[in-house]
Amino acid sequence: MAGDLYSIGLSGVLASSAQIVTTGQNTANVNTEGYNRQTTSLSTQQNGGVEVGSTKRVVDEFVNTQLRSDTSNYNYFDSYYQQGAIADEIFSDKATSLNTYLNNAFDSLQSVNSDPTNTGTRKIAYTDLKNLVSHFNELASFSQDQTSLVNEQLTSNIDIINEYANQIADLNGKILVQETVGGSKANELRDTQEDIARQISEYLDIKISFDENDLMELQLGGGQPLVLQTSVNKLSLSPSEYDSTTYELVLDFEDYELGIDTTDLGGSIGGLMNYRADFLEELDRQLGQQAIVISDSVNQQNRLGLDANGDYGKRIFDLADITVSQSGKNSSLIHEVDVRVEEGKASELSTDTYELIMTSNNAFELRSFGVSGESTAPARFFDLDQMEKTPDGYFSIPGIGIELKLEEDVKVGFRPGDTFQFAPTSLAAANISLASTSGDDLAMNAPIQVERSADNLSDAKISISSVSNTDADTSAFSADGDLYRFAPQGIRFTSETSFDVLDQDGLILAQVADAKNYTDLLAQAGLDESGYDVSLSSKPTAGDVFNISFNQSGRHDNYNGRAIADLQNKALVGGSQSFADAYTSTVARVGNLTNTAKTNMESSEVMMEQSIARRDEVSAVSLDEEAVNLIRYQNSYAASSQVISAAEKSFQTLLNSIR
Q: Which residues contact 454 (CB under 8 A, 6 or more apart)?
């Protein structure tokens, strides 16, 4: 019995000692980051006494999983917001607003309209147009600089993740040795491993599982393996297949690389990549869209007038060529697709990316995608054999504002599946430049002049109602600055509602027997291809004659200048917004995205803090609790020692009785 009592007391001492050690370990690590408090389990022995079980970490995997998820969400929105706030500050500043430069430019054009002969106002207008171009370049430069900065941050973050992944794999090896060979629980190593996993969740959304040896395995949110036992698949950035300046996230499996869908990456990397695409790329393309529309509309209108020297107007702005990239898997890398903005159709442009997939040597499928990769319209199919070609070999693509030309290797030809990509508005704002060299290039004057005959009996006055084309090949205007001999140059009324259209020699080109009104008389006569038209202010009288001639005298009537200035208020961007409204929408989008990210950041921070509190409630060390436990275990130790003493006395009494 004394032996049994001694064993019981000894087991109690050992049990209390083990619990005191555990309590001491907890107390010592109260400030250790990532430490989970531990407990030592006890169980009753069948023959009396207590058996010391294992010392385990107190963790709740559900709580830890939620903490990693909330940490990932917070860092996603935080990284997005921190970058967006920089853009918001710049674009919301009135001093740097593009609209300020737009207003200055068009106000100057109005000043030129007031006196088209004034060289000084033309110089000011030229300077303001130059400043507008420079500001487009500066705003686009901000977007490019931000993209470079984001790429640098992504590279740094990925390096950190790879280092953390290596540490987790290394810890797996140490845990395996300690728990299988050493026979002891690797609690501290597992704490370190779990804390590293939490830190990884700051950069990426990850999933954690454990294999048959209870070793940690890491997968990305999409299920791709990052850590398996002691092996690591490294993350890296790789140039996009179609754009070497855009980097995509890939997972390296040594033998091959796997592209990672960035839609639901989470963490700061997900935030940065979505900011780069959804925020910066769309910002750059919206600015590019506005730059192209302004350039195209002003250029087209300027061509319809005469400049200060009496010459046809030329381009005021220049745009860089649209970059077309092809897949490295194409049948021949010699093949090319040339794309350009269709003149006069820039209002049809969107900010989409287009993918052209050849279906035969002379036919293709055209798909469109937003900056985040989502489809924006059903695929369209084109057969170039059924389409009309421009003199320089381009084909117009209806509805999207572009023309394209296929440049093939004549020996091979295009093959089905050959793929090309282009985004017409990408980098357009960065590459817009001024083609004009002085304010004299502003074609403010009409290319024709009109007048009523002095012998007319009515008070009707003639005016230019439109000038739509001055191209020598497709209009009544000649290349040397005149009207062709057989162009409409006179209108003779034979009654109040009938008239003849005359050429330079007075020959009748067309007759109208019943004019519906006195607007666009040449169109009513079926001569609208002339490139110009005229209207009357009131009812004419039989015998009234109205003359049309080329503006040889260079009469400064500001007709075309007013048309250029009127572009400011037309819904040309996307066919629905004025220049100013489009930029205002861009600024509003920047602000909305930033504010939304801020709101989400703040709410996700609250959720993360709540998860931290729940985790601490389960796993953190409480000094008060440990102090109570220490007293309890010390008392238990002392009591068990007394049991041993009692056993010794009983045994001694037994020995004495035998003697």
A: none
Residue 350 has pLDDT above 60, yes or no: yes
pLDDT attached to residue 2: 47
Buried b (16+ CB within 10 A) or exposed e, 389-427: eeeeebbbbeebbbbbbbebeeeebbeeebbbbbbbbbb
Q: What's the pLDDT tens digit per position in 558-580?
A: 999 999 999 999 999 999 999 99
Contact 283, 429 (CB under 8 A): no
- Which pair of tokens denotes residue 542? 């039989």
Give residue for tokens 């990932």.
72
CA distance 284 to 244: 17
Q: What is the rounded distance in angstroms from the CA atom of residue 404 to the CA atom of residue 478?
A: 28
The band of 85, judged by pLDDT with boundaries at 50, 70 and 90, is very high
pLDDT in tens, 6-18: 888 888 888 888 8
Of the two residues 60 and 132, the one the predictor is more confident about is: 132
Give 107-118 as a DSSP string. Answer: HHHHHHHH-TT-
Retrieve residue 540's tokens: 């004419």
Q: What angle do CA 348, 354, 360 make, to 5 degrees?
A: 115
**Pairing relation of β-strands 38-44 and 50-57?**
antiparallel
- Tell me the C-alpha distance between 439 and 152, whole Å: 43
Q: How far apart are CA 321 and CA 341, in angstroms?
A: 9
Quote the DSSP letter at residue 325.
Answer: E
Rounded Cα gap, residues 460 and 271, in angstroms? 68
